[in-house]
Design brief:
Elements lengths: L1 E2 L2 E3 L2 E2 L3 E7 L2 E3 L2 E13 L2 E3 L2 E8 L2 E3 L2 E3 L2 E5 L6 E2 L2 E3 L2 E3 L11 H32 L1 H17 L7 H29 L2 H30 L4 H18 L12
Length: about 260
């Protein structure tokens, strides 16, 4: 903790970590090409300072006065300045993209969402195993993909965190049934001599689709959520309709 420090004409070229600065004065200082990790400025004055190429994590400015200061190519966005007074302050070329604050509460949420998504696959597997024979493989695949498309589309109407997590869990549960159906159809549709090749092609296509999906979505998610949602919805609807054209393999003797 630093209290009432006064720093003039200093070049900060080293990272700042786990610090609290209270009632400090920073006059004509330069913060260039550094990382600020868990840094808090409270009731401080920044005058004629220069911030450039800054990466920050869990860093905030609270009740500070910032005068004639330039922020260039930083991720110090508006929400990181709490009750601050800005006078002749300029922000240029702010860093773009999704930013993740590494705070404990967010870590717990990330693992919780991942855990719930994985746990939701279990009832999907159980339901598909119980009904794949009664409903049929083709209907399981097509219906599951169409319901998954609906889960993607309803993200447009979801503005709360809990609703998005619920849709994710539902998507994981329903899509698991489609995967199970595809694997059963693949086994029953191809003879043993070709079955391993069929699974290999299926897995290769899945990996390729995952790479393309991540690349495409990453380029659009910072611009608008509409394009990734519509692409997912369209792909799932098309896949579900095509799946309904597959031959029914029930009661078929394996070769």
């Amino acid at each position: 903790t630093f209290h009432r420090e006064r720093v003039e004409n200093f070049h900060f070229n080293f990272s700042l970590e786990n610090q609290i600065h209270k009632e400090g004065e920073y006059i004509r200082d330069r913060f260039i090409d550094i990382e600020m990790k868990s840094v808090r400025f409270e009731d401080s004055l920044f005058e004629e300072c220069h911030f450039e190429d800054i990466w920050s994590t869990d860093t905030v400015f609270k009740n500070c006065t910032i005068r004639s200061t330039l922020f260039y190519n930083t991720d110090l966005w508006e929400e990181k300045f709490i009750d601050c007074r800005m006078e002749n302050t300029t922000f240029e070329h702010n860093k773009q993209g999704c930013h993740l604050e590494m705070v404990e509460e967010n870590d717990v949420l990330i693992y919780l969402v991942s855990f719930l998504g994985s746990l939701a696959v279990l009832p999907g597997n159980i339901i598909s195993a119980l009904f794949v024979e009664k409903i049929g493989r083709v209907k399981i695949i097509g219906g599951s993909m169409l319901i998954s498309a609906g889960c993607s589309f309803f993200l447009f109407l979801s503005f709360s965190q809990s609703a998005i997590i619920a849709l994710q869990c539902m998507f994981c549960a329903v899509s698991a049934a489609a995967w199970n159906g595809i694997e059963v159809v693949t086994v029953e549709l191809y003879p043993t001599s070709k079955r391993a090749t069929a699974f290999g092609v299926l897995n290769a296509l899945c990996k390729l689709a995952a790479i393309l999906g991540s690349s495409i979505f990453a380029s659009f998610v910072g611009i608008t959520k509409a394009i990734p949602i519509l692409l997912s919805f369209t792909a799932l609807v098309c896949g579900g309709l095509v799946a309904l054209r597959l031959p029914d393999t029930r009661q078929k003797i394996l070769q």
